[in-house]
Amino acid sequence: MLPQENILPKSLQEVKKLLKEYELHYEKIHACVNDCCLFRKENEALDACPKCKSSRWKVSESNKETKKRIPAKILRYFPIIPRFKRMYGSLEIAKNLLWHSSHLSQDGKIRHPVDSIAWDLVNHKWPEFALEPRNLRLGLSADGFNHFRDFSSPYSCWSVMLVTYNFPPWLCFKEDSMMLTLLIPGPKQPGNDIDVYLQPFIEDLMKLWKDGVVVFDTATQSIFNLRAILLWTINDFAPYGNLAGCFTKGNFACPICGVNTCSTWLTSSKKTVYMGHRRFLERDHIFRDKSTWFDGTCEERGRPEVMTGYDVANAVKNIKNDWGKKEKEREM
């Protein structure tokens, strides 16, 4: 049927081998079962966790012997840099990534993150970054899910997604525009130890921010140095505490008020309630003096000052983290 000189693959195996060169691969990184560390870089050759001494490999329940080098826990990382290069290799996608540079709001209304204060702040603080419209502005989202579709099962697997805000608003949150970067295995949620699993992802982000990578842009048929910045993280309240390094429960559960959070412990119901909302009213508001309407006190305090990013960074810079599950958490 085909000429004898044809070079088409003769088997399915040859087809797979040919297409493999065009695939976007992912990395399997072994992790400690107690979330203490990843077995990479200085830990790559180890057979046990340097902190908790747990085996890197699965252990047989019958004779407590290590199974034949089967990893006990695997983190799957989908490298972001090859994917960004692939995006600029598509003519249509490369054009859409420039949408933000020519569609600023003219009436003061926010229709896209390009109209936001955060976008303007980046332009003001790093003008050399803003001069290149092809540089990427990203948002990160992390949350847990049960991939067995059985809500009675306690298994919790976590995904870390990346959104590219250079796209127009009708493409930003399409499935094709959202990028899965990390798949963190269960069965328990990582909690504050999510920082351990974010290491390879953060390293690539830092490379994109500091040095950038050389990328070919199909739309302009030119080579440029691609850089990227993470604008913000998006998540529900519980992971917010893990990713932002602040309290989201207990006496200081308000991330805005911080140590100035007004909390009261109800001994009968065994719950913490949060009071002091009248602090945010105007100084001459009638509710400030209505002690009998509220908790029996007049409110004379002003609203607490909101900490800036620099304030938060200075407050937590000397904190030494002790990664990994504690002894009680391992037994649960």
TrEMBL record:
Name of this chain's protein: Transposase
